[in-house]
């Protein structure tokens, strides 16, 4: 039986691309929401979920930080996908026939230079793959879509222009979620540990909590705060550090963190992706 990996979005979305690139042997399962993708793994409908957490141009994917701690799932891998944006149209369409391009507003904003140069109007769509699907069904050569090449492949569209994004380094980081943690792999490029914590309500608690990482030489690559349950006083922090909890320096830093926090939850211990370096 083919194992399945769940993602949020329609077939041809960049999350689908991440599934295909990272697990080409698995069947990709499209889901309507991030919650649905998580539930597909919890229910056994899928073995893994591929969830985007941040983009190099637009920062974090807002909902994910709230969903991960409550999901009951564990991070077992990270994956980085270059967001190459392509102009897709009906087969046989010429570039000078295109008057409008449809896509998610974020992608429309990332291709301003190309669209302006060719006098193409921007049309907001719900998402990238959905826009490609709409263009294929509309049957209008004046309307194109901005999406992945995979979306063009799925919906029978031709690529009129490749890699038209303004910024050539636009990358999205994904986390692969599984029902059970797996702390056994050791990555060729090192290890990452992701956790969430809440500091105790004492003066300079965060400053003191971070001290252990500095004194033990543990590199923290991400630290973000967000409110819990709509409260302005209960703040949860999401952190990525380099290293494994079994490493002596990381163990000491986490011990020190424990002293200044009311709660720590490790979300995953996993190999650092080679594209991180």
From TrEMBL:
Any one annotated GO CC term: cytoplasm
What class does this enzyme belong to in the EC scheme?
A: lyase
Name of encoding gene: pheA
Q: Which UniProt keywords apply?
A: Amino-acid biosynthesis, Aromatic amino acid biosynthesis, Lyase, Phenylalanine biosynthesis
Q: Tell me the lineage of the source organism.
A: Bacteria, Pseudomonadati, Pseudomonadota, Alphaproteobacteria, Rhodobacterales
**Record protein name field:** prephenate dehydratase
Taxonomically, the superkingdom here is Bacteria
Q: In which pathway does it act?
A: Amino-acid biosynthesis; L-phenylalanine biosynthesis; phenylpyruvate from prephenate: step 1/1
Cross-referenced PANTHER family: PREPHENATE DEHYDRATASE P PROTEIN, PREPHENATE DEHYDRATASE-RELATED
User: Which segments constitute the ACT domain?
Assistant: 194-271
Residue intervals of the Prephenate dehydratase domain: 4-179
A Pfam family assignment: PDT
- Reported EC number(s) for this entry are 4.2.1.51
What reaction does this enzyme carry out catalytically?
prephenate + H(+) = 3-phenylpyruvate + CO2 + H2O
One biological process term from GO is: L-phenylalanine biosynthetic process
Q: Which GO terms describe its molecular function?
A: prephenate dehydratase activity
